[in-house]
Structure formats: structure tokens, C-alpha cells
Amino acid sequence: MRIWPVAGKLFPGARAVIEGADARHITGVLRMGPGDVIRISDETARSFVAILEETAKNRVSITVVRPAETAQMKKPDVLLAVAISKAPVMELIAQKAVELGCAGFYPLVTQRAVGETVSPAKLERLRRIAHEACKQCGRGELMPVSAPVFPDGLPEADLKILLWEKETGISLKSALGNSGNVERVLLVVGPAGGFSPDEAQMFREKGFVTAGLGPLVLRTETAALALLTVAGYHFGKLEDGQ
Predict the structure, then answer these.
(1) Assign residue 138 a region: left if phi > 0, alpha if psi is -120 to 50, beta otherwise?
(2) Strand-by-strand arrangement of the 37-41 sheet
(3) Residue whose C-alpha is closest to residue 227's, from 193, 170, 186
(4) Which end of the chain is more exposed for a tag (fewer CB within 10 A), N or C?
(5) What domains, with CATH codes, occur in the chain?
(6) pLDDT tens digits, residue range 107-165?
(7) How many Cβ atoms are within 10 Å of 120's Cβ, its own excluded?
């Protein structure tokens, strides 16, 4: 069942309002009305069952009934930074990253990135895509989408891996295999032109492990999603249970 994010902290018996595109989707697309039941999440990522009280085209009033069970993201938190690419590539990665349990998405400025920024409109679209993906896949907590960052602006992590097609000595399997007990993992994927040797060395000096993903050169979107999937499998994030 879809989950609809709602502003504020909620509790059983609380009343809340859903407005805008979400309200239009509930009433216009799903054809739901008073008495129907939906699932919602609040700003703390807690999920609840709620009942629709009043519905209009752009506004839905709800009453929280009880807490609901939702898919919880297992530890470690896996963050993904991707060199700024064409809009359709970034949008696809952001959408699928949500479904694969990514805990944070960072458009990254690199030497060969397609531009040094993401416009406010495109950034808002990325965040909206992540928001919609959370609702679709039943994920209670939103995946934050950062404004573009330079390498120095990336968050710290216990394990940091840079996927680099010129790395032949260290495989992704071995890089993950030596991870031990970690709370946060940062994965970095380059642009279509790849990382330069100087960039790769700079990342190494920042504590990153450069790792290869086989003999084939992958598209940015393929590499990003393969990296998330392999990491998710390695850390058991794709399995049921805690």
C-alpha cells in the first residue's frame, strides 16, 4: 500500500491535512473518499493508518487511527553520490535508489560531470521523484536529495567506495568484504567520461577505496544501480526481517 508523507508529528487521534498533488492523486486518480483508509508517515518517519474524513480536489482531511507496520531500512545507511549527468539519468537513479533502500542521494560535481550544478527546478523535480517513489514502494522515510556538492562536501562514512573502471586490483566484492561492522557507507559513481587518475588519487587520499566492477564499462545509471544492489545484498538489506 502506498504511504503518503504528512508534515508534523502524528499520533493516534490526531487530525491532519493532505494538500496539492497528493490530494489530487488520492481523490482524482485513486477515487478515494470519506471512510476510505490510507497509510501515512510523519516527519519522524513513523507510519500510521488513517481514515479519510473530508475530501476535495486539492485538500483531504484525515484522522490518524493507529500505528502501521512499514518497510524499515536496515543498517548500515547506504549513501549514493553520482556525478552530475543529464536530467533523465539523474531522475532514473534517484527513483530506483529509493526502491533499493538508499539513505541519501548526492549530485556530485566532478571534472567530467555534465555541468557544475543542478538548477533549482531540476533539484525540486529530483526531490519530487524521490517523494513519489517512497509512496509507491511503501517506504516510510524519505530519501533526502542533496543540493549539488563538490567532493569536499560529501558526508563522512565508515566505509567509502569509489567505483572506477580503471581499478583492476580491487574488486567491489573485496572492497565490501573487508567492511566489518559499519553504520554508514558512502558509494560514489562517476560521469560518462569516468574519473581522471588525479581525481581517483584525490579520493583515495580522502579515505576512499577505489573498486572495479568487472571488465565492462557501464553507463552511469547502470553502475549506480548495480553498486546499490550489490551493497544491499552484501549487507542483507534486500532480505526480510531485522
Answers:
(1) left
(2) 3-5, 37-41, 47-56, 59-67, 15-19
(3) 186
(4) C
(5) 3-67 (2.40.240.20), 77-234 (3.40.1280.10)
(6) 999 998 887 789 999 999 999 999 888 877 877 778 999 999 999 999 999 999 999 99
(7) 9
118 CB contacts (<8 Å, ≥6 apart)? 84, 90, 107, 126, 147, 148
Label residue 37 by pLDDT band (50, 70, 90).
Answer: very high
| Residue showing cell 483508509 | 37
All three cell numbers of 42, joined, read 510523519
Q: What pLDDT is stored for residue 57 in this prediction?
A: 87
Q: Contact, 20 vs 56, CB < 8 A?
A: no
Asked whether the beta carbons of 90 and 84 are under 8 A apart, the reply is: yes
Q: Residue 24: CB partners within 8 Å, gap ≥ 6?
A: 57, 58
Pseudo-torsion of CA 197, 156, 241, 7, nearest 10°? -120
What's the pLDDT at 42? 84
